[in-house]
Amino acid sequence: MKPPARLQALIEEGLIDTVVRQLMSGKEATVYVVRCGDGTRCAKVYKEATQRSFRQAVDYTENRKVKNTRQARAMAKGTRFGRQAQEAAWQSAEVDALYRLAAAGVRVPKPYNFHDGVLLMDLVVDARGDAAPRLNDVQFTPDEARTHHATLLAEVVRMLGAGVVHGDLSEFNILLSADGPVIIDLPQAVDAAGNNHAQRMLLRDVGNLRHFFGRFAPELLRSDYGHEIWGLYERGALRGDTALTGRFERAAGVVDTTGVLREIDDARAEESARRLRLQAAGS
After folding, report:
1. Cβ–Cβ < 8 Å for 195, 62
2. Assigned domain for 274 exists
3. Burial of residue 92 (number of CB atoms within 10 Å: 0-12, 13-18, 19+)
4. What is the domain extent for residue 213?
5. Domains identified in the chain, total number
6. Is 122 exposed, middle or buried (0-12, 13-18, 19+ CB in 10 A)?
7. CB-based contacts of 124, cutoff 8 Å, min separation 6
């Protein structure tokens, strides 16, 4: 196919040889299958602007560093330069998270290069060598669901050990490769220690896994791995080989009403977004 303008620069730089086809297009980016020498990779081309609510932007970008105070002021004012800087920071967050998580052994696509708004990384494939499907497009037996759920909980723990919370983990941004699940889409990843919303986001990530795999293995719906993982993390007792039980005893005390209402609002927003994604996938 004719290379998109954004990928032509990578061809001229010798980073890719040819563009094979478009793989997918979303609200934030378009992904292409590309050839690099004898190998096949994918190129994620970020769009110029994304659709994100103000609350999401504030929650996800809290404590993210920018290059200088001029950028910070412009981003706070919402000027054109500030919006461009915010978009660049959003893209860089995914790149930085991918490199950090790949180095920590987390199951993410291996990144190779980031050039002018294009992220070059491994193409995740299935057993036949085709582009791997999303979890949402696959049916599982109860045993398969339990196995993949356990694998992904281990990845959540490994990510947390690297100081990262995905922030939007669900069946829509996990691919099923030939050797198991691979986590993708990390522009909203947050620093576990530096973001005040990290706990809520981790609980939501783990809750999404519970609800999805619970469709196939209903006993998972009764588990509470999220609070258990975060409790161990806060106490400094979380390790890569920590045996999780899925049980958590909540301490009696004052109820954080504001936090509870916020979680309810987030759950409603997530369910609404889930329905929209299901409608889009079925159309």
Report:
1. yes
2. no
3. middle
4. 5-250
5. 1
6. middle
7. 42, 109, 131, 132, 175, 177, 182, 184
Q: Which residues contact 250 (CB under 8 A, 6 or more apart)?
A: 227
Find the helix packing angle between 80-103 and 54-61, rounded to 10°: 50
Sheet with 118-122: list strands edge to edge.
18-25, 29-36, 39-46, 118-122, 111-115
Is 155 within a domain? yes
275: how many CB neighbours lie within 10 A of its CB? 10
Residues annotated as part of the active site: 168, 185
Residues 9/117/42/18 CA torsion (nearest 10 deg): -10
Whole-number Å distance between alpha carbons of 124 and 240: 24
pTM value is: 0.79
In a domain, 97, yes or no: yes
Query: Residue for token digits 């478009």?
Result: 22
Distance CA 182, CA 152 (A): 9
Q: Determine contact, residues 85/49, Cβ cutoff 8 Å.
A: no
- pLDDT of 18-63, one tens digit each? 999 999 988 788 999 999 999 999 999 988 765 444 444 555 555 5
Is residue 264, in this structure, part of any structural domain at all? no
Read off the tokens for 41.
Answer: 């990779």
Cα(210)–Cα(215) distance, rounded to whole angstroms?
Answer: 9
Q: What is the pLDDT of residues 61-117, one digit of tens each?
A: 555 554 455 444 444 445 554 455 555 556 688 899 999 999 999 999 999 999 888
Q: The domain that contains 11 carries what CATH number?
A: 1.10.510.10
